[in-house]
Each structure stands twice: as structure tokens, then as C-alpha cells.
Amino acid sequence: MTMQWLFYIAGAVALFASLRAVCHRHAVHALLYLVVSLLALAMCFYLLGAPFAAALQIIVYAGAIMVLFVFAVMLFNITDKDIERERQWIRWQVWVGPTLLVLLLLAEVVMLIQLQPAGAQQEVQLIEAKTVGGLLFGPYLLAVEIASFLLLAALVGGYHLAKALGRPHDGAP
Amino acid sequence: MNFWYSFLAIVVLVMLLLPTAAMLVWVERRLLGFWQERLGPNRVGPYGILQSLADLIKILFKHDWIPPFADAKVFVAAPLMGALAVMMSYAVVPMAPGWVISDSHIGLLFFLAMTSLAVYSVLLAGWSSNNKYALIGAMRAAAQTISYEVFMGLSLLGVVMLAGSFRLSDIVLAQQEGWFILPQCLGFVLFLIAGIAESHRLPFDLPEAETELTAGFHTEYSGIKFALFFLGEYLGVMLISMMITVLFLGGWLAPFGLEGFIPPIIWFVLKTFVLISFFILLRAALPRPRFDQLLAFGWLWMLPLSLINLLVTAALILGGQ
Question: Is A35 inside any structural domain?
Fold first, then answer.
């Protein structure tokens, strides 16, 4: 019972933080809300019995990727003018289309839950790191390889873009 | 283990950690003085032992100032985040058999996760100060932390493979046959260097290099908020030392079959203290590298070495089966 309440609280935090991440007028503050949302998701993963995924969620998303986002946005020198422009962009008329689409999705999810047989709610199974590793290098090997190709391509691209132009082969790293 | 027992353990741990970190400031300054052939603080109390108390009183009476040009909310939250992230990590460190707040089965990953979150403190402190020195310090901190985090995790995987678990008490117990510093000597050195870089200690304290950045990311901080950064740094040093003890030096296990007459916690504290002294010795002995040298060293030497360590360890374990 406690676990369920913890889950609902974490879910509510994730929902609220995601909303703030979308609506906030200040880019850095919005990113911080996104970090909170990711942390809350990690909590949800943990409570659903996936501790390894939860830890990776924090290490990779909250701790590395979002740091780079904050790092980049922090250098934009956000002024009051930008915040004012953001305020003009975020008006209620903008929200009508997305809200309708999301409501449609919500209706689908509710129907899906309704359609499921009553006994489908099982006990929480703990998924350890070993199981995840076995799955990644077993049935999902192809997906892992494709992801690693993508990362390699990104790496080569990043190297190419960051290479110092004009002074080739001077030994500088 | 019920709720109140854990709560009591947390309170006791915090009550022990904070004064220890404060005392560490005095220990560091005395040791630095000793190694640099000068006296160090020796006025307040016998051998200057009350220096930290005097510093604390001074810091508490300082004006708790928020610069008018700063982003006030983030400015206040940043030092708290750093200190909290470090203190959270202590929850999974086993100090003696059963002496741990949460013997989590993902303890090592939890430690890595909290370390990776601690970077936000420095990053946001530098950004919210709205000061060029602070911003440059924050940029350096982010680049350095992200780079060194990569092989901090990789260097530990050898230990995880040997112990077959992420649970820190399992890792300690797996070292009964022999400490992991021998089979994982490369991993030990890599983790030590990464640990120094993660806690921004000299020679890796480029985010706060005073000769070029005044005080780096905490230039605008004063009073109790500055004290939190200070506390976070010393807690970080203690944490890294404890983690090295747990992962490579057998945790609470006694060396050379000396079990019996000395309680495990004493061994743990002794090993940790030796490592902390080593950290301080490094600070006394080494100069600061240039920032691009630091990053190049990380990516060109440390990362390949940790990958080699990982490969060789995995191959040896597979071959031994």
C-alpha cells in the first residue's frame, strides 16, 4: 500500500514537473523542471521493479545528457527580452490543438486499461542488471548494434564539426 | 529493520559526518603546513584544534547576501543540491558488517547516480551568479565532471565483475580472499584519479582556480551558502576515500589476518584516513595542469586505459571459468 502511494506521488511529481518544463518561460528553469521530471520517472521505474533501469535513468539522462543541455542553454545569456518573447509565444490559443490530441490519447489509454482483464495486475517483479544484460545481448542484440551504429555516426560527426579548421595537423588535440 | 531505526541511523550518521568534515578542514591545513615546512593554524585551542569552530562562528555571523543581479532561487538552491547529493551517497556505504543505512542491491549505481547529480550544484551556482568568472568556472566543472565520470563508471566495472554484484557489502565480502587493489590495480589508479577530479580537488581544481578565475563558480557566494560548498567538498573527499576503501581496500576487513582484537569499524576508519591524507598530500605536492591538458589526459589516456582494464578483466574471468 505504501509502495502504491509512493508511486502515485512520484507520478504526480513527474506530471507536474513535465507541465512546468513545457510552460515555463525561462529556458534554464524549464530544463531544471525537466531534470526533476526525469528523476521522478526514475523513482517510478524503481517502484515498478526495475532498479537497474532507474539507476541508468539518473546516471545517463539526468546526470549526463541533461547536464549538457543545461550547459548549452546556460551560455545563451537569456535576458528579460527573451522571457517577454516567450510570454508572447505561450498563449492559450497555442494550446488548443495539442490539448485535443492529448485528450484523444488519454481516452485511448483509459479504454486500454478498461479493456484489460481484472486479474492482469500482478505482483511487482524485480528485474536485475543481469536480466537486462542478458536481454540486451540476446533477443535485442540487433537493436543494441543499431544504437551503437547511430552513436558511432554521431561521434564521427561531432569529431568532424569540432575539428579545428585552418590549422590542420598541428598536433593539437 | 524498521522505519525508526533507519531514521535514528540517518540522524547519527549526519551528526557524525558534519563535524568530521569540519575537523577535516583543520587536519588538512595542519598537514599542508607540515608538508610545506610551516606551522598552519595553531592559535585556537591546543594545536589549533578549534580552528574549524572559529571558522564556523565567523561564517554564521557573515551577511547572507544574494547579489541583486543573480537568479535568486537557483542561487540559493545550488549549494544545497551539492551538499545533499553527496550526503545521499553515504546512505549506501557499508562501514562495518550491518552498519549501513540502505544495503541496496544497486548501491554502486546509486553512488554513481548521486555523483553525476552533484555536478548540477556547481553548474547552476556558476550560471545563477551571473558573473563571467563564475560562468567560466561552471563550464569547466561541467566539462571536467562529464569527462571523468565516463571512466569513473568504467573503472569500477572490473570490481563489479569480480564481485558479481552492485551491492557494496557483497563487494567487501568478495575481498576476503584478497583485496581488489591487486587484481584491479589499474582500476584502482583510474578510480582514484577520477575521484579527485569529481571532487574538484587539487590538482584538478580548475573550476575554482583562483589565479585565473578569482574563485570560479563560488565567486559570488558568502556566509552559510559558501560554507555549504566547502562542506560539500570535504564530504566529497571523505566519500571518495570511503568508496575506494570499500571497493579496492577490503572495506572493514582486517589486513594480514589480523581479525579478532580490533573492531571492523576501526579498520574502515583507518583505511579511509590514510586515503584522505593521500588526497591532501597530492594537494601539497602537485601543481595544476592547463584545462585542455586535463581534458586531453582524460579522453586520450584514462578512457582507453579503463576500456583495456575492462576487456582484460572480462577475458581473464571468462578464461578462468
Answer: yes
